[in-house]
Amino acid sequence: MELLTPARPWFERDDWEAEASRRALGPREVGLVDTFRREGFVVVEDDRILDELDVDGIWTRLAGDFAADGAGRVQDAWSTDGTVRAIATHTAVIAVLRMLYGREPVPFQTLNFLTGTEQRTHSDTIHFSSLPTGFMCGVWMALEDVALRQGPLHYFPGSQRLPEFDYEDFGVPAVAGEPSWRNPNTLASYLLYEDRIDAIARESGFRREELAIRRGTFLVWSANLLHGGSPREDRTLTRKSQVTHYYFSDAVPFTPMHSRRSEGAFAVRRVRDIGTGELIVPTLDGAPVVFPVRDEWTRGIRRVDGFAGKLATRAMALRPELPRSTGDALNLTVRAAVKKLLLR
């Protein structure tokens, strides 16, 4: 069974400068790539990026979704708020991501924050990863000027070069039961993970930095960069921002905290492209795959070729279910075709 492919983001290659030249990147772009590969993040300034967007209206429209003191987050407001969606799909952001990764970015989740999160240090790769690995990132957009006393983002430059740690690496118990935050086992295991990651961040020798930036500036970070939210020195202040998470084309998204990689058991995600509203079709570097059932919550990942591969791809384009086999893909395709005929 073929699971992994050797593909990694092109900027990780030793000959990245030659590749940048082949891609005809200019000096500014080469500088962004160089910083991103070394530090695990890059800050992009654009004073006009939000000029034509009703950014201030976001907080009026979402006001009732935050706690009384402004704490908390609103997830996936893109589905109802056009401005949130426009930020997630902004051409300036998409262009930088496309240049950095050499693949088409797929924005799939938004988080809007009225105040600083004070979230403990973590890596996004415990929540989101992909096969092949490395094709996921986050973008943090400042929707107002952010100073250090507002509880800014903190991060550890260079920490993206650490292994992609998951629960198995730390001896944290696998989450028993439903893979959601409604399950108390999810939080219990995650708290143990946070303790281990916090110790690694302190002991690894990476310096800790905080981000003070102006409105309209955005930070792109590698999924494996250790980061979190710093304490809010002045709790009367807001820290309006939006985080958008992105996968990239030709990859299979999954959730590591609910997976057991050593057993080939993956909590595969079906994600919707914010830009198109359509479910993306996961592939391994473009190769079609099916997803044999491992247990109630996890799947295997098996590459299929030829007509069977086309069938699996077609099934996922038509239906939200993951095909368990080529036979299952055929059944899903037929069901979708019948439903379409009945609706005519």
Please outline what is shown here.
The chain is α+β, with helices and mostly antiparallel strands and 344 residues long. It has helices at residues 16-22, 27-39, 55-61, 82-88, 91-101, 167-170, 184-203, 306-318, 326-342, and strands at residues 41-44, 74-75, 105-113, 129-131, 136-142, 153-155, 209-210, 218-222, 227-229, 241-248, 252-254, 289-290, 302-303.
Number of separate helices: 9
Number of domains: 2
The residue-averaged pLDDT reads 92
Please give the alpha-carbon distance between the first and last residues.
41 Å
* Beta-strand residue percentage: 15-25%
Shape: globular
Q: How many DSSP E strands?
A: 13
Order of helices and strands: HHEHEHHEEEEHHEEEEEEEHH
CATH superfamily (homologous) name of the largest domain: q2cbj1_9rhob like domain
By oligomeric state, this entry counts as single chain
